[in-house]
Every structure is written in C-alpha cells, then in structure tokens.
C-alpha cells in the first residue's frame, strides 16, 4: 500500500475534523510526503495497521493491536490528553514515539491567562458590565482595588508547557516568580530566574496565582480549602489547566466572601449548570474552556504533525510535538474535552 | 521662612488630596528635607512665593507672579497635563525646571492597554457577559474570532511615555511593531527594533492599534473616518490616551458594523451620556477613564516629587519626572481629568 | 547490596576525577540517597551490575553485559560524547535512559564564543599583543576594522545545546540571526525569532559565523574550501564545537590572505604541532580547547547527575541532563577530549 | 546668508575631519535642509555667527560672542566632552540647546566593555599569547581561574549613557547588578532591576566591576588604594570611561600581586610611556583608548546631528543627542581625546 518513498500514515484526528487542524498547504505537504489512509471503520483501520509508519490520532491500541503494527514508528496524539486506551509500555519497549500536541495550545493558553490576570488586576470585565448598566465609575472612583502586575509576587502551580510559555510574557513585569512543581528539581527553575517554592509558600506569598497543573492522582484537589485559605486577601487566581486540581466549592466560597478574585476557564462539569451560583459572582471572570482552542492553535497542530512526521521519515528525532515521558504518560487523569 | 538647609517648597497638589499621592513615609522624607508650606488662599500663596525653591502643583503662574518668585528653581506638575495658566517661556528663560508626572501613570496605562488588547483578541469580557446570561459557548464554539498577539502586526500611534512603557510588555509576543510618531526621527525607533511608518501604513497593516498620542492642534481627529477605514476588518483598536485624537462617531459606526473591535478608556464627554449608544455595542470593551489613575500610580507621584526635589536641592538635575520640552509644553490641548 | 530505599549507583566518572565533577555537598546528597559503588576493576564492575539502578560514566556496555544489568534504569554519560562502546539500541529497547552532560558545558561555551566574537570584532587580543610590543595605536588609528555586533548579520551553524545557550546572549545585540540546522524544521527556528537558512545563504550573508555543529558522517568538512569562499571578506568565524566540521587548511589559508578573522578553540590534532603555522597568524585568536571545560561547568555535571538520579528514583523523568535521541546517538563521531 | 527655509548651520567639527562623522548621504541630507558654512578662520566664524541657527562643534563661545549669535538655537558638541570654553549659563538662559554626542559612542563602548569582561573571565588574550609562544594548556589545564558571567555579582560604577547601554547586554547573564551612582535616586535603578549600592558595597561584593564614571572634581581617584582593597581577590575590573577616576599605581600594584585582573582602555598619560611596567603585566588586557572610537560610532555622530537639527528646525525638541544638564555641564573635567 505504501511505497518505499512515501511511508503510510493513518489519519484518525477525531475529535477534530481534519480541516480544523490542517491548513490546505499543510495537507498538501502531508500527502506529498506520505501515503495517507483515513479509515472510517475499525476494520479498515486494522487492515492499514500492519504497514503503518505512524498513526495520527488516538484510536484504541492495546497490546494485540500494536503487535500487528509491525512498522509503527510513532503515535501522534492530536487531542491533547493521553487516555489509557493505548498500551504505552509496549510503545516505549518498541521504541514507538508517543507524541502529544500540547505545545500547539501553550501560547494561546499563556496569552489568555495573562489576559485574565490583567482583567482581575484591573476589573476590566467587571467595569465593562457596570458601564453597560449605567453604573460606571470614573478615574479613581473605580480603581481602589486596581493593582499593578509589575513587581508583583506571582505564583505558578506547575511548570510544564503552559508555564514555559507564560514565563516570557510575565518577565517584562519583573515579578517575583515562585514556582511549585514537584516534578522538577529546584535548579531547573533557578537557572531561569524563578524561585522554587513549596505549594504552601507559593500560595501564601503570591498576589497572582496561575494554576497550570495537569490532573494526576496526586494533584486532584491540590488546592483544597486549607490551601486556598493560605492566599492573601485580595489575591487573584487564574485557572486555565484542569478543574479537578481545585476544590471548586471552596474556591467559589472564598470568592463570594470577597477575599479572592478568580478567572476560571475550566469547570468540574461542562456545560456548567444553568443555575450554578458561579454565574452571579462579581469576583469572577467566567470563561467557557476557551483558553487553548482557538483557530490558530488548532491549525498549528497540523504543522507540528507534518513537521515531525517528516523528521521521523528522515531518521531524525521529532522536534515540535511533546515527547511523552514513559514515567508520566500513565499518570494523567484528564478527561476528553467536550 | 526657610532655612538654608531646608529649602521652601509650596505644596498645592490639587486636584489630588495630599494623601493620595504621598505615602506617609514619603511625606516624612519631604518634611525632613524641605520647609513645606501649603497655602490655602491665593494671598498665602503669594506671601510664600518670593522664598519658594519649588512649587508642587499647577497654580496660575503668569509672568508677574513668576517675577516675584525670585528663588524658584522648579515647578512640579502633579496633575498630568500642562495647562496654559503658566508662563512657560519665562520659566525656560529663567532656567526653572518644568516637570511633569506622566511617568507615574505610564506603567499603569501600559498594563491596562495590554489587558484591553488581550480582551479584544480573545473576547474575554464579551464571553464573561454571555456566561452570566447563560449563553456561554464552549471550546471552539466561542473562539472563531480569537487571535494571538504573538507575531501580530501591531501599530502604535505615538511613542512617548506610554509607548515606551508598553513596548517591553509587547516584546515577548514578537510582534511586528509599526510606529507613527511625527516628533521622532526614524532612527530612534529603528534602534529599538521598531518599524517607523506613516500613519496610513500603520493603520492599514496592523491587526492591533494602540492609540497613545496626546492632543495638540495637529492631532485632533488624527483618526478620522478616512483613517479608520484603512484598518483591516477585524482589527482591534485600543484607545487609552485622549479622546479628541479620534473621531468618535466614525469609530463607533465602524464598531457597530462589526468591522472593528475597540477598547475605549477615554471619551469625548465624561461622564458619558446615559443613553449613549456605545453602551450597547457588543464590539466594545467600555472603560471609564481607569487606565492610569490607580492607587499605585498616584502614590508614585509623591516619590517622583520628593526624589527630584532632593536632587535639585543637591544641585543635580531631576531624574524621575518628565522634563517638559520648551518646544512642546505650549502645544498640549488636554483638558483636566474630572 | 542495595537496600530498597537506596538504589545502587555504579560510579565510573573517568576521565574525570570524582572531585572535579562533584562538590562535597553534591557527593553527600548522592550518598544520602543512593548506595554508591566505585568499582576499580572490570570484575568489580561486573559484580555490581546485576543490582545497578544506574551507571554514571561510560564503561563498555555491549549487549551481553546489558543483559546482566537487569535492574538498570539509566546510563549517565559524564564525558560529553557518546562513544560506540555501548549497545544503545538495546538501551532504548529496555527503556534505559541514556543521558548526556552536554548542558553542563553549554553556558560556558556560549559565553566563551561571545567573548571570541567580541575579540574578533574589535581586535582585543591582537591590540593587547601590540601594546605589549610597544606598537599600540590610539583611538581611531587602531579601530579601522572594528565593527559592532549590534544589528549585525550573524550565522549559526547548528542549533543544539550550544546554539540555544548562545541565542539569549546575542539577542540584546538585535542581530539578524540566520541558522543552518538540517535536523530542525524551519518553524522551530522561526518561533524563536531566528531565520532558517541554507548553509550557503548562512555563510554568504553573515559577518559573524558561529560553528556549533557536532561531528557526524554528514558534517565532516561541512565547511570546506567552497563554503568558506562564500563568506564575505572581513567576516569573523568562531569555531567552538568540533574541528572536523571545518577544512582547516582552507580555513587557515583564508585567514592568512586577510579575508577572514577566526577564533579557534578546537583543532584537528591536539596538542597542535609546535611548528603549526597557525601559531603566527595575526588574524586568529588561538585557544586550546578551553571553551567548555571550566571548573563551574565540571562541577555542574555532578549536580545534573544527582538531580536526575533523584527524579528517576522517584519514578519521574530526568529533567536536567540531555536525553539522547535514539535516532542520533549512533551518528556522533566525536573523539574523546584529551 | 540663510534663507527662511534653510537655516544657517556653522560646521566646525574638529577634531574630526568631516568625512569621519558624515556619511555621504548624511551630508546630502544636511545640505538639503540647511545652509552650511564651514568657516576656516575666526573672522569667518564671527561673520557667520549673527545668522547662525546652530553651531556644530565646540568653538570658543564666551558671553560676548554668544551675545552676537542672536538667532542661535543649538550648540551640537561632536567631540564628546564639554570643555569650559563656552558660557553654558548664558546658553541655558537663552534657551540654546547644548547637545552632546555621547550616545554615538555608548554602544561601541558597551560591546567593548563586555568583550574585555569576557576576556578577563576566561583568559582569552592571555592564552592566545601563550599559544603563540608554544605554551598553551589544553582543556582543564588552562581554565583553573575561568569563571562564568552568568549569575555573577557585577558592579557598575556610574550609570549614565554607558551603563544604560551595557545593562541590556549583561541582562541575559542574569547577574546581580549593583550600581553606584550618586547622581541618581535609588528608585531609578530599582525600576530597572538593578540594586542601588554604596561605592564600598559595590566594590566589596562584585566579581566584575565596570568603571563607567566620568571625571568631575568629586570622582577623581574615586577608586583609590582603600577602595581597590575592598575588591574580592580574583575580581575583574574593566575601565573604559576615564583614567583619572582610578588611582593607577594602586591599581597596577594590585594586578601585579595577582589579586586583580583588569582590562584598561584609558590611561593617565596617552601615549603610555614605552617603559611603563603595565606593558608586562600578565593580569592586564591592554587597550589603547579603542572602546568608543570606531567607524560606526563616528559615522553615527553625523546622523545624530542631522536628525536633531531637523527636529529643531521643525520646532521640535531634539531626540537623539544627549541634552546637557544645566547642573552638570560645568562639572566635567574630561580632557580632549588625542
């Protein structure tokens, strides 16, 4: 099916329609260099598997199926989360690259997180609502709780793709950046001018806290009632990674008390219930899982995929997608994004 | 009245109450180093004037009054605009420093302008409103018009205090930054990695346009109907300097047509009329002159004042406030901020 | 031999004496967390191997030896080059991490490369020699060939560890940075503000060229006579990676003709012959393989090692050493550094 | 002599020949916009003076001559130092701009200073000499005293043009930057991420010290024997501003003792005596006043001049040359550069 010069790539990019992640010229590049099969049944998928050089997508790949994929060199996940429907151990044993598309979203999330932080710092959306209701307050009458980001104490909970993309955006504000990331040795942070800190210290000393951690068994409700109570009054919390990292009732209670302002992009249940009291909290900026999934981010997925497939076909290591770590890929507990 | 060691400073900081611009310890520093007089009548002011080393504030200072201020070395404007109630020519002839407090506001305005730009890029306040109304759209359903700031074409109209403060905040987004500033030679911009451009080119090629120009006879309605029509569809305009620079009816018409998104902090008449149609435009982020006047900015004015008074008393040039240019001080047409 | 809580680490750090790469407190950390064996014979090594969690060093590890190392999780190379005395394929099959200490040297090499570039730009060492000989020339008499790095056209040949460390040091000079690296897709470079370019274009358009490539079968004499002839007259070439990348006779001939200035840290044969004509070339800055091997770099190797061993023992992926790529580890042709 | 549209400019750029500071197209711009007179006698100068809009150069301008220069708006110094042959007080009274060309040299000096610092950090010129003498030492044999600039304690003595140009070049090394500048309030430094410090603290805590101060009555021998003794052993001192700031015998004694390494570009007497013992000190990098006067810097002077003349003729303030401060212009004690 494939020719020696055009390795076989199986394309199963759901939940994305192909045109969301591939620009026309990216698709052309893909087809120029690879034989592309888009199986619409499991049977068709199974027929293509023995010759497949790579699989783009996240179909079920248990051990027995992988055993038949004798030529498989790479699994390119374009959804954003690693689900347990693949025998990752077998992939690593076989030297099959397991690649994720997280980097495609990181800049979009970082820019959005900064936008939420500046909104919370200055009351932008709150005062826009007031203006529309004829209740606007001019100049100093409406800025009593406005604060600068310059020189602020800023905490990052987690320092992976998102943190590394956010860091340069924050740098010109010259903040003191404390980072809690139990997966990284302190020296990695110090070399970048960051202050490694415990979770408690990060929370207790930060005016702005960005929650950037992914969900594992260890990080579920990492920010519970006790931890949130460590935040200084008037702190701003930006949640753009995964909802289960935070105890939502505790978070919302603290916002309702006026002790915390929060920008929330991810929710325990999406869509959020119509009568969820969060909808009326003045101290929130409400956002419907919008931080990462923008056209430019989706379209960059296709570029990452084709660039890395091209490298792999040339016998080179991938350079754009995230290489899943053998030690971590089984720990994630993120759910599919609806 | 003053002693040789404690030069006399007349303090008339209106419209600010003194405690807005002086932290307690700043005030202590001021009184430690200077004899401070706060005249509450014009007569008291006139009595203090002959011995005054400096005047903090913007009282009427026509030629005849300046003539009596024989020891005057500096006029420190803490309002933010230079009004024509001072004989500036005489100040310059006498070598009296005319200093402005613009730098105190610049960081606050720059952070706010970036916040508005990110809001417009991603629909943060618009979607917050929708969420509160139960109309939120999840993930890609609500991000069709979302764009990145990274790599964007960005235009700056004016490159003074505000532009210089905004520039480093934009730098990590690696934009192409076109600047229109008729008061600066192109080389000044090029040396900082900026692209000098005409007004028309700046507008026609920018997805984001920051209007940072002050009002002079030349810049009134600098952005009229013709100029706004040059903007690409879907552009984002951020107005944080002075309303008269823009033709508001033309601006609002363009937003109403859905061709432009705008974040507006300054208005032709403040307060804005209750029935102003701008209040209902979905394409706006509405803001009530809130960009600069935040507590931290006000309090830094006092620091600027005391630091520069201290330098002047030591026979050194000022280093923190903005030195008014003889050529420009008479050109400004800004009105007092209510 | 090892206890459950203190995994066994075999330490064979030659060519380094242990104290060169381990600070006393680093060694204490190592011994606190691991059972450390330092075998002084091959037999002792073989006895320790079956229980070894990790090997620090680069002993011969053919397939049969690896087969006995049933617990082995990581091979931590502290020499800096990957030699073919290890069955890397088997390591990858087994999921044994193959880690290199390149990052320990990268900052030292980057700073040195910048130092050489500034020396070549301004004639620092040449004029120091002249001064000592009583031939110094003051002010403009000795600066006719001096050039700025600011705004210069700069080429990087290779963009791995060294390039990534050098890039931020060059950034404030606002150069146009062209990069030739056949292992990276252009987008990786563009995202960092770099200009991807062919080798010929990089050479033909650069005033400063940094040679940062490692040696493979493909890169031997990458810069031959034809390529060097592409450089503009007066160009400055900085060679800090590996000598075989450059055709030395062609390079030295070009310097002798006065068409090129070069800073050379690595040589085809080290030590260089006593009568090597390079020793007398005025257009050279001569350096004896000094760019990377400085005390601070050596000592950071120990930190990298202990930090990554600690992560691995906690079931986390390494974060400080360089993870060898399956595709590349067999391609390197670097020789041991004497 | 001049027409209304082409104001009269007197050009007396000595010690520079005109072609050193004006590119051909810069000269064309100058002649297009201005009537240019180049008087070759004092009489010719006096004849042109009454109509002169600006003087480029530093001719004697005592009060009586200024009195005849009724149209004079600007004095543009192209030598680099302000000498006492001008009645500056009268210039300030008259609102005549006094402009200096310091900014033209600042980048060149900053790059050179960094080059000297990296040379001292790594022994570049010292080991180049050794290599030429057949005494080179390979790898770790010659790097025992090599140190990184990354993370180093760095002191700046003076923070004017030179400091502001050097600062961004040092920033990517993430040093702790202590600054001693008695003309600046601490907040100006803190806002830029610098640590304001006393002279003694700056010296005692810095591994690298850049001497960037100009000469006034206060700064002569600012670094005397007592101050130099505060430096930690092994410190690196870079002197690129003015020799009288340092007590040279004390400096050279300390270098001779092996306690200090120094890069010296300016000398108490230039040319330096043939038998000056400095010529033989291994711990020095010797440089003959070469830091600023390079072709690119000279040629930028012409650009600064024509850009600012153009602004002034349009009724705008200058934007490129340094505006001399009334308080400081009489304090400088720099001598002409030979």
Automatic annotation (TrEMBL), chains A, B, C, D:
Residues 114-291 form the D-isomer specific 2-hydroxyacid dehydrogenase NAD-binding domain. Gene3D superfamilies: NAD(P)-binding Rossmann-like Domain. It comes from the Bacteria. Pfam families: 2-Hacid_dh_C. The keyword Oxidoreductase applies. The keyword Cell inner membrane does not apply. Keywords: NAD, Oxidoreductase. Signal peptide: none annotated. InterPro entries: D-isomer_2-hydroxyacid_DH (IPR050223), D-isomer_DH_NAD-bd (IPR006140), NAD(P)-bd_dom_sf (IPR036291). This is D-isomer specific 2-hydroxyacid dehydrogenase NAD-binding domain-containing protein. It comes from Streptomyces tauricus.
């Amino acid at each position: 099916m494939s020719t020696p010069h055009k390795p076989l790539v199986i394309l199963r990019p759901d939940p994305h329609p192909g045109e969301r992640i591939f620009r026309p010229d990216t698709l052309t590049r893909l087809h120029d260099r690879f034989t592309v099969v888009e199986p619409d049944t499991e049977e068709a998928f199974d027929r293509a598997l023995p010759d497949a050089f790579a699989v783009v997508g996240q179909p079920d790949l248990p051990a027995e199926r992988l055993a038949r994929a004798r030529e498989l060199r790479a699994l390119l996940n374009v959804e954003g989360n690693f689900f347990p429907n693949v025998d990752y151990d077998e992939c690593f044993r076989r030297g099959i690259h397991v690649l994720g598309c997280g980097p495609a979203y990181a800049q979009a999330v970082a820019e959005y997180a900064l936008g939420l932080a500046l909104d919370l710092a200055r009351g932008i959306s709150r005062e826009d609502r007031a203006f529309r209701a004829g209740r606007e307050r001019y100049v100093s009458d409406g800025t009593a709780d406005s604060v600068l980001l310059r020189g602020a104490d800023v905490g990052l909970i987690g320092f992976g793709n998102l943190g590394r993309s956010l860091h340069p955006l924050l740098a010109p504000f010259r903040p003191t950046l404390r980072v809690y990331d139990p997966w990284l040795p302190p020296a990695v942070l110090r070399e970048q001018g960051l202050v490694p800190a415990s979770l408690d210290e990060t929370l207790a000393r930060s005016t702005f806290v960005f929650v950037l951690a992914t969900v594992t068994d260890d990080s579920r409700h990492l920010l519970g009632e006790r931890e949130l109570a460590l935040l200084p009054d008037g702190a701003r919390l930006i949640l753009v990674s995964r909802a289960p990292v935070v105890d939502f009732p505790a978070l919302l209670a603290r916002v309702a008390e006026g002790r915390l302002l929060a920008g929330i992009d991810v929710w325990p249940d999406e869509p959020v219930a119509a009568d969820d009291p969060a909808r009326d909290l003045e101290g929130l900026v409400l956002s419907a899982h919008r931080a990462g999934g923008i056209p430019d981010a989706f379209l960059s997925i296709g570029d990452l995929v084709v660039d890395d497939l091209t490298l792999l076909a040339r016998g080179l290591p991938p350079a754009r997608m995230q290489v899943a770590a053998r030690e971590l890929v089984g720990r994630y507990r993120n759910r599919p994004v609806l």
